Amino acid sequence: MPKLKVLSGVDLIKLFEDFGFSVISQKGSHIKILRLHQGERQVLVFPNHKEIDKGTLKAIYRQATKYIPESELKGQFYYE
User: Fold this and answer.
1) Could you give the dihedral angle defined by the CA atoms of residues 9, 68, 73 and 47, in that order, rounded to the nearest 10 degrees?
2) 45 and 30 in contact (C-beta within 8 Å)?
3) What molecular function does GO assign, one term (predicted)?
4) I want to staple 48 with a disulfide (CB 3.0 to 4.6 A). Which of 7, 9, 19, 30 is the partner?
């Protein structure tokens, strides 16, 4: 199984901005990002930490695959 990368909240913002998401709000340490794709609101929420826990990162990846094909996301989250 490929190894999960170490990512921060800032890294995730940059990653998802490349897919058309933009930050819409922040409450405490949690950031909410949004994109409108084919008339559908696609929202993701994640913590803005210096290093996101592996379990949390896997959950973010799993949620993001609802909106972005896994083939495009995998290289961003996992080492090949």
Assistant:
1) 10
2) yes
3) mRNA binding
4) 9
Residue 4 falls within a domain, yes or no? Answer: no
Residue 1 has pLDDT above 80, yes or no: no
In whole angstroms, give the CA distance from residue 47 to residue 75. 21
Predicted confidence (pLDDT) per residue in 14-60, tens digit: 999 999 999 999 999 999 999 999 999 999 999 999 999 999 999 99
Boundaries of domain holding 69: 9-77
8 Å CB contact between 15 and 29: no
The CATH number given to whatever domain includes residue 27 is 3.30.920.30
**Structural domains counted in the chain:** 1
State residue 80's pLDDT score.
83
